[in-house]
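Annex B. Sample input.
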Amino acid sequence: MQVPFGEWLPDQPAYLNPGANEANNVYYAARSYKPFPSLVKFSTNNIGANSKGAGSFRSTSNVSNNFASTQTNIYKLDQGSFTSVKGSLTGTATDFFTFTQFGDYIIASNGVDAPLYYLMGTSTNFANLSTIATAGTPPVFRTSGVIRDFLVTGNQSANRNRVQWCGINDITTWTPGTKQADLQDLPGSGGQIVAITSGEYGYVFRQNEIVRMDYVGGATVFRFSVISPNRGAVYGKTVCQDNRRVFFYADDGFFEVSGDQVKAIGAEKVNRFFDIDLNKAFTDRIVAAVDPFNQLAIWLYPGASNTGNTTGICDKVIIYNYVTEKWSLAYVNASTIFTQFVGAYTVEQMDLISENLENINISLDTPFWSGGQLYLGAINSDYKAAIFSGDPGEVELQTTELELFPGLRSDITEVRPIVDAQASVAITTRERLADNPVTSSYSSMVTSGNVPVRSSGRYIRANVKIDAGTVWDHAQGVDFTASRAGGRWPIKLIQIT
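Annex B, continued. Sample output.
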């Protein structure tokens, strides 16, 4: 009997779950799981402490610029090496940096220190944004985005509900009424502003409200429309964006906002699982990012079992494929994640990373070395720059729990993993739904592609494991060979539904 893995649905009961009960170190594509790549470090040095934010940007001359911050410093990554480009910052352990590109300017702020700028192609260090202001003073803010031709800031130190923007296409102008620069205090009980997205229009995320900003020009400049009056984002870092699609984590689960519509994407799928699995002592460490190439929205978070997590390092990511609308889980140790542009490397520059090409962790066959491609990047647990391009970790997939013979016990003699890799299989059984499941030891695949097993029970699940480092592409399900307990003939059903 062929049983597809289906989508991972941990919020639903194991018995007759329409999808997989476990899906670790994978993501769901079209009708199959694919391997989620491991994290591979490539910088020669580290930033020395937990990252408080990171960003990757490409200049108008197509040069990549990558930055990462700690509590006290901002670092630039050049050809595999971090260099401090701003020190003596005074933020606390709970103050996080936002990096926003405005033309060739990179604007950075932590809500405590004066906002900073870096002009790509010109600057060698970050400097106070106020030093280039010609009209008014830039506010101290915690979050920002670019809507149309304006840098829009939010959550000022003096007013957590204030939105303020610069002059049209002019980062130097901040006087309200000059070149359409202005400000707006958001009314009501929506809570403080935590994130602002970018685009032709933008979303202002408050703790309990989402406001859409549309440019209308004239004296009004922007129209503000509440599109979600009772739901916002838990923290700004839980918001990520791929063009007009924005994903976020709220108090009641995962959502997507597009246009004026807010859509639940985690309800009855992963919301309850995540609420239980999240270490709530460190909720502020959740970081979201998109992998635009694979069309994944990803949230890095500290798992509840990691009770000794005091260093800011998270250990899991929950993954949402926003094309197939399906979820999965992976194990990752990292300080932060972000969408990263990688610059091109010459052979000489590769020597800076490693004198021996055989010791370089990133495959020489990948587009990484030619530059220009977007990767899902990270600051890893050693505080070094890394990308998700390595071999997958150990994969665990578990089918739904079912009765192979309704109302009867089954004897399992073989399982064929429908996986294009060497795999091993264990069987989980129980006699009553009230019983604790019992899992057999894992058995290895033989030359025929089958895994000989001996297991018996009424409620059956198959557990498939693929060893870490194994190269594979698709995992679709399993094919049971089974007979009714006490019967004489095995049966097979050959259609995957």
